[in-house]
Write a structure and sequence with these properties.
Chain B: Keywords: Membrane, Transmembrane, Transmembrane helix. Chain B: The chain crosses the membrane at residues 80-105, 126-146, 161-179, 253-274, 329-349, 472-493, 521-542, 578-602. Chain B: Residues 621-721 are annotated as: Disordered. The complex is a heterodimer. By secondary structure, chain A is mainly α. Chain A has helices spanning 2-8, 11-21, 25-38, 48-52, 55-58, 63-70, 80-87, 97-100, 111-122, 132-143, 149-163, 173-182, and strands at residues 45-46, 78-79, 129-130, 171-172. Chain A is globular and about 55 Å long. The relative contact order of chain A is 0.10. Chain B has 21 helices and two strands. A two-stranded parallel ribbon of chain B has the order 1-2. Chain B is globular. The chains are: A mainly alpha, B mainly alpha. At the A-B interface, helix 10 and helix 11 of A face helix 8, helix 9 and helix 20 of B.
């Protein structure tokens, strides 16, 4: 399995992906075999249905949004490069990376990029603000019909009140970072591959 | 210069030769790295294995997600209890029961191990066995079976010594474990203050566990997220309640007074009933009616049924947070059950004294009989080598053996307690749920929504039942070694039975509240019960004489004489000297004094640490608030700065933008921006031409804002204008 995967993936491609995302050689080959196992149509791209076959995503209330994050605007298929680009957000932060190249742009798995990824899960209309309605949608997905609507509304109001600092009744990205910074342990979106 | 640099480089290369991957050290280094990686992986796998070994974790998580952390805390407590009892059982079984069974004399060989002739034809009857008489009484379950030979078997195992040490060691171990758990729990209780900052935002954005892949677990996670939101809502509601302090205080005093009255009344009732039962014991048993014979049990059960709901109704006057109300309820029912304990111990001591009286006469008779036998034999057969009397063990005169009687009482109590608990669950929860579900189809009003509806899990009753049950076990373990094994079985079945009952027959509480982070309140009650149950056992070991013909201490003056004998006979001489010196009061008193001083010192340092902790938290809170307010309206709520600002001429205080909306009232935890009027003294230099601006709109007329230094009372407020 491993050898078949690496013959379909050329060395130069692996090098490019390595430079772009920071994954190691072995990690890229492992992820490529996972990619091909998900790709039932065997056409080198993944569709939304392929992702929904993953059980952890299927039962996740935010599963659809995470899947959406893989697909660039308006497209329905994602190739391996795009797949890796999104997965790069989940790579653990390594300390020595900070010193490597101060001039180059921020790597994809930096802390603020991870938070941006999480932020985009909630901000559906991409206006860089999480409004009350978007919070209500998320709450309804997480909790369902077990809590009354007015209580859900109060929870959403209270959340905004806690996090909002400039008084525009919505949570901007900076305010979101503040929430994240208080509980550093919990907003570490890391996966050990 | 170049040369120095070169030598530095060479030294570096030599040192890290292996790491650099070249040179002679590389194989060793690679090996070390590989072993380190394997070690880390092994440690992680072992930790995973240890976590997987924790019993019932999934069951408890399921209960937690559906019913909240307060109900789950009972089951966690039950599991902890099970672990404790398992260890106690291991001690008792391994060091007392097993040696006697394997190396001691079998059943029927000596009088104490045989059913007396008079009882033999009824010894196998079920009714007798269920009453723990017959063969049960003369088995390893009870104290009387154990022989008093100093050493038994090939290994020279000292059974009496082991019995005494295990009996005392059970208390010592339990004490150690309880205190250690309390200490460990109090460690984690310190971060409550940080929760206030982003509770809801945190719950909203981070509550889902992305590693869940199992649909069942996902259902549990949904339920637990819902429960967690409900808990936070309850907490919020409690914080925002309208505070009419005087009315509330009056109501609380009234409630406490009522409850004290009822506790006093029940105490007097118990005392009265016990006295009457003593009088009845002197009368002829046939003259008494059933009611009079069972008066004590009847009154106790009545009190146990009536008082807890009564306390709950009275407690509604107090309007505490549900978590605090639960603690009060627990404390009150605890006081009530102490009365229960008092009657039981009273009755028990009466019985023990009666048996001791009877024993004296039987003992005298036995000694006299033996002397007669020996003197007759020697005069008849004219030898000095007299064999022991040739009587079958079942026919020997037997003393009443009060220790076994006490053991039987405890075992009977435990068994009846088990029966009552299981029956209550079966009838009170299961039958009720069945009736409500199935009778609902043909009943005039909605049974599920109105009366009686489904039951809620009674946390306080169950916790107290568990604690008192453990108290009984501690008291009875010395007299009935089999009791601990019985308790282990009981806890095991109880866990499964109650988990099933909760999931199938109960509904979550109306107001789901988060349990306190530690179980320390339960542990505190358990500690109290441990001390209370230690006292009777130690008293009997020290004061009451053991029976002369049963148990491992028979024939001795006091039970603890075993230890003295061991020190004299088995240990080297100097250890005996050490013990004599160590028990000298002149040594013990200074040691006690030293310990008291150490406790005082540690208490003082811990208080200091707590204060320092609080100060740091306050500083952090102030820093956060200042930053937030600075962003909001570029003004300081720092009182000093505010005073300065007010002193500046021609400066009108902007009314602060308060991020409030109807329905999401502020809770004064750093979000409410209530401006305190600056109480600046008149400035001689620049006249402040207008009075301080309007106060920040206080949405609800609350009392003084809680939280850290908001400026009130900082120094003496100068005269207002």
């Amino acid at each position: 399995m491993g050898s078949r995967a690496s013959t379909l993936l050329r060395e130069e491609e692996i090098e490019e992906i390595k430079k772009e995302t920071g994954f190691s050689h072995s990690q890229i080959t492992r992820l490529y075999s996972r990619f091909t196992s998900l790709d039932k149509g065997e056409n080198g791209t993944l569709s939304r249905e392929d992702f929904q076959r993953i059980p952890e995503l299927a039962i996740n209330p935010l599963g659809d949004r995470i899947i959406n994050a893989f697909f660039p605007e308006g497209e329905d298929q994602v190739n391996f490069r795009g797949f890796m680009r999104t997965l790069a957000h989940f790579r653990p932060i390594e300390d020595n990376e900070k010193n490597k190249d101060p001039i180059a742009s921020e790597p994809l798995n930096s802390r603020s990029n991870k938070l941006l990824f999480a932020f985009r899960l909630y901000d559906l209309d991409r206006d860089d603000k999480i409004s009350r309605d978007e919070l209500l949608q998320v709450l309804r997905m997480m909790v369902g019909v077990n809590i009354s609507d007015e209580q859900l509304g109060s929870i959403a109001d209270r959340t905004i009140q806690e996090a909002d600092q400039n008084g525009d009744n919505s949570i901007s990205f900076n305010e979101f970072i503040k929430v994240g910074n208080v509980y550093i342990l919990y907003i570490d979106i890391d996966i050990d591959i | 210069m170049f040369f120095c640099w070169l030598t530095e480089c060479q030294a570096f290369v030599e040192e890290f030769e292996g790491a650099l991957g070249k040179g002679k050290g590389r194989k060793l280094y690679a090996y070390k790295v590989m072993m380190a990686k394997k070690m880390i992986k092994f440690n992680r796998d072992f930790d995973n294995f240890k976590t997987a070994c924790i019993p019932w974790e999934r069951k408890i998580k399921e209960v937690e997600s559906h019913f909240g952390s307060s109900v789950a805390s009972y089951f966690i407590f039950l599991r902890w209890m099970y672990g404790l009892n398992l260890v106690l059982f291991a001690f008792m079984f391994g060091l007392v029961v097993l040696p006697e069974v394997m190396m001691g004399l079998p059943y029927g060989s000596i009088p104490r191990k045989t059913v007396p002739r008079a009882e033999q034809d009824r010894a196998m009857d079920i009714s007798v066995l269920l009453d723990f008489g017959g063969y049960c009484k003369y088995s390893i379950l009870f104290y009387g079976f154990y022989n008093d030979e100093r050493t038994i078997g090939v290994l020279q195992f000292r059974l009496p010594l082991s019995y005494l040490l295990v009996g005392v060691g059970i208390f010592g171990y339990s004490l150690m474990v309880v205190i250690r758990t309390m200490a460990r729990n109090s460690d984690e209780g310190g971060d409550g203050g940080d929760d206030g900052q982003f509770t809801f935002a945190f719950k909203m954005f981070t509550s889902w566990d992305y590693l869940i892949g199992n649909p069942e677990t996902a259902d549990n996670k949904y339920a637990s997220i819902t429960t967690s939101f409900k808990e936070s809502i309850v907490d919020e509601q409690e914080n925002q309640k309208d505070e009419n302090i005087h009315l509330r205080r009056f109501l609380r005093v009234l409630a406490n007074f009522l409850i004290l009255c009822s506790l006093g009344g029940s105490g007097f009732l118990i005392y009265f009933v016990v006295k009457r039962s003593q009088e009845f014991a002197n009368l002829d048993q046939d003259d008494l009616s059933w009611f009079e014979k069972n008066e004590v049990e009847f009154v106790m059960s009545l009190l146990g049924l009536v008082c807890p709901p009564l306390f709950e109704t009275i407690a509604e006057l107090e309007e505490y947070h549900p978590r605090i109300a639960l603690k009060w309820q627990l404390g009150r029912i605890f006081a009530l059950f102490l009365g229960n304990l008092y009657t039981f111990l009273f009755a028990l001591f009466d019985e023990v004294n009666a048996k001791l009286e009877k024993e004296k006469s039987i003992r005298n008779a036995t000694i006299w009989g033996l002397n007669e036998y020996y003197s007759n034999y020697s005069s008849y057969h004219n030898t000095t080598d007299i064999p022991p009397p040739d009587i079958h063990p079942a026919d020997v005169i037997r003393g009443p053996c009060w220790e076994t009687a006490v053991g039987i009482e405890f075992v009977k109590l435990t068994v009846s307690d088990i029966q009552v608990t299981y029956m209550t669950i079966l009838i009170g929860d299961f039958l009720r749920a069945m009736i409500v579900r199935f009778l609902n189809y043909c009943w005039c009003w909605d049974l599920e929504a109105g009366f009686p509806s489904y039951g809620e899990f009674d946390i306080s009753g169950n916790v107290l039942g568990l604690i008192f049950n453990q108290g009984m076990i501690w008291m009875g373990a010395f007299y009935a070694p089999g009791l601990v094994g019985l308790n282990v079985l009981r806890l095991l079945t109880s866990m499964y039975y109650q988990c099933w009952a909760v999931m199938s027959c109960n509904v979550p509480h109306e107001r789901v509240f988060k349990a306190s982070k530690s179980n320390n309140f339960y542990m505190g009650l358990l500690l109290l019960v441990l001390f209370l149950s230690l006292l009777p056992v130690v008293y009997t070991i020290m004061t009451l004489p053991p029976s002369f013909d049963c148990g491992p201490f028979s024939g001795r003056e006091q039970m603890y004489n075993v230890v003295m004998e061991t020190i004299e006979n088995d240990l080297p001489a100097f250890i005996g000297n050490i013990f004599t010196y160590a028990t000298n009061p002149g040594l013990i008193l200074p040691a006690v004094l030293l310990m008291v001083l150490a406790i005082y010192y540690l208490n003082a340092t811990s208080k200091n640490y707590q204060n320092a902790n609080l100060e740091l938290k306050k500083k952090m809170q102030m820093a956060r608030d200042e930053e937030k307010n600075r962003r909001n309206n570029k003004e300081n709520t720092n009182q000093v700065m505010q005073d300065l600002e007010d002193l500046l001429p021609n400066r009108s205080l902007k009314s602060p933008k308060v991020a409030k909306r109807p329905g999401a009232a502020a809770n004064g935890k750093g979000i409410n921006i209530q401006k305190d009027v600056s109480l600046a003294a008149p400035n001689p230099k620049a006249a402040v031409t207008h009075p301080p601006g309007p106060r920040g709109p206080s949405g609800n007329a609350r009392g003084p804002p809680p939280g850290p230094a908001r400026g009130r009372g900082r120094g003496t407020p100068p005269s207002r204008r």
